[in-house]
Design a protein that fits this description.
The chain is of the alpha/beta class and about 375 residues long. The protein folds into two domains: about 140 residues, Rossmann fold (3-Layer(aba) Sandwich), CATH 3.40.50; about 200 residues, Rossmann fold, CATH 3.40.50.720. Helices cover about 45% and strands about 15% of the residues. It is built from 14 helices and 14 strands. The strands form three sheets. Strands 1, 2, 3, 4, 5 and 6 form a six-stranded mixed beta sheet that branches. Helix 2 packs across helix 14 and helix 5 packs across helix 13.
């Protein structure tokens, strides 16, 4: 694989290959763009079949983080890391501490966190070697479970969508179908119930459905029937690629807005079809940015109330995206990419002014920023 051409394609700044024979570590850290600030993004552990596959994934994911942070209004750039290995079999303290030393070597240009295949415990091993990690436990000064903050952002994002479609941000009496009532879906159901929405919920775990039926008077729906629910809003909070060639014909809602990642099987194609069907789609990476806002807060000293308040700002971001999409007759997905690119472009101009940067304090330790 031609590495420089791959980096050139989406203009990645830096790619670091990390190898440690003793721990067996093979990892790649990709820094896509640091115009807005240090590159933040999780570490994915996956048994990639080839090195090319791992590199492609880290390049794609790190670029996605640039857009996510920029659209959320955060002063963070985009980065991501992948560790090649089986998360069920190959994890140990030495591996993550070796990885932590590589992260430390980047001196804050890249800040890591958990992702698919990694968990809080792994990040605590990383923390033993570097402060440049977020998403660690509350006991170690971290932010703990991000899902209440993610759900808060989704709830406010939903309100912005309702304002655009129904001329009122109120959810009282609205019918909302939630797919997946795990962490994010459950907290979202709670917010919606408090505001008087009528809920239809599904999950492959029956106990989770029963909890929502009991607590929020929700109507239980079989997993495969959720697309046919007579609801005005569909909130995917489980898996990715659930809007595909088959389901896009079935959904009857006016708004699709939920916490799940990568909801559209094909962003371009399905984004366009939703637009033609006059179904308002809240771009997933925008509406679920509460999780990122939560960990971003950890960098300078975590306060849950502040994180929750900032997640409410997703309302304004979606308002802007919907306005751009309507003005330019484009999909909301394309509009959000444009908003992110505009912000990066504008902020890069600010950097022409020279300032003397002062060391900053992060969890009690001082670092040059
Ligand atoms: P979770 O595992 O707690 O909840 C997901 C729920 O979906 C589970 O209860 C699971 O049983 C259910 N589910 C799985 N397959 C299903 C199916 N086919 N039909 C119906 N239900 C199904 O996960 P979570 O933390 O709530 O995250 C949900 C989604 O939001 C994921 O896509 C995640 O990547 C994304 N996300 C989460 C956060 C966060 O803060 N947790 C932040 C950003 C994005």
């Amino acid at each position: 694989m031609k590495i420089f051409s791959a980096m050139h394609e989406y203009n990645h700044e830096e790619v670091v290959f990390c190898q440690d024979r003793d721990s067996g570590l093979r990892a790649i850290i990709a820094i896509h763009d640091t115009t807005l600030g240090p590159a933040l993004g999780g570490t994915r552990m996956w048994p990639y079949k080839t090195e090319e596959e791992a590199l492609q994934d880290v390049l794609r994911l790190s670029r996605g983080m640039t857009y996510k942070s920029a659209a959320a209004g955060l002063n963070l750039g985009g980065g991501k890391a992948v560790i090649i290995g089986d998360p069920q079999r190959d994890k140990n303290e030495m591996l993550f501490r070796a990885f932590g030393r590589f992260v430390h070597g980047l001196n804050g240009r890249y800040i890591t966190a958990e992702d698919v295949g990694t968990e809080v415990r792994d990040m605590e091993w990383v923390r033993m070697e570097t402060p440049w990690v977020v998403g660690i436990s509350e006991a170690l000064g971290g932010s703990g479970d991000p899902s209440p903050v993610t759900a808060r952002g989704v709830y406010f994002g939903l309100k912005a969508c309702c304002e655009a479609v129904f001329d009122t941000s109120s959810l009282r009496g609205r019918k909302v179908a939630i797919q997946g009532v795990g962490h994010v879906g459950y907290y979202l159901a709670e917010f919606l119930h408090k505001e008087g929405a009528k809920l239809f919920v599904t999950d492959i775990r029956k106990d989770r459905v029963r909890r929502c039926v009991g607590q929020f008077g929700a109507t239980a729906v079989e997993p495969d029937k959720i697309y046919d629910a007579e609801a005005e809003i569909f909130a995917p909070c489980a898996l990715g690629a659930i809007i595909n060639d088959e389901t896009i014909q079935r959904v009857k809602c006016k708004i699709i807005a939920g916490g799940a990642n990568n909801q559209l099987a094909d962003e371009h194609k399905h984004g366009r079809i939703l637009m033609e069907k006059r179904i308002l789609y809240a771009p997933d990476y925008v509406i679920n940015a509460g999780g990122l806002i939560n960990v971003a807060n950890e960098v300078e000293g975590y306060h849950r109330d502040k994180a929750l308040k900032e997640a409410e700002g997703i309302y304004n971001v979606l308002e802007q995206i919907i306005a751009i999409a309507r003005q330019e007759n484009t999909s909301t997905h394309e509009a959000s990419n444009r908003l992110a690119e505009q912000r990066i472009e504008q902020m890069s101009k600010l950097k022409r002014m020279h300032v003397i940067s002062k060391p900053r304090e992060i969890r009690g330790e001082r670092y040059a920023w």
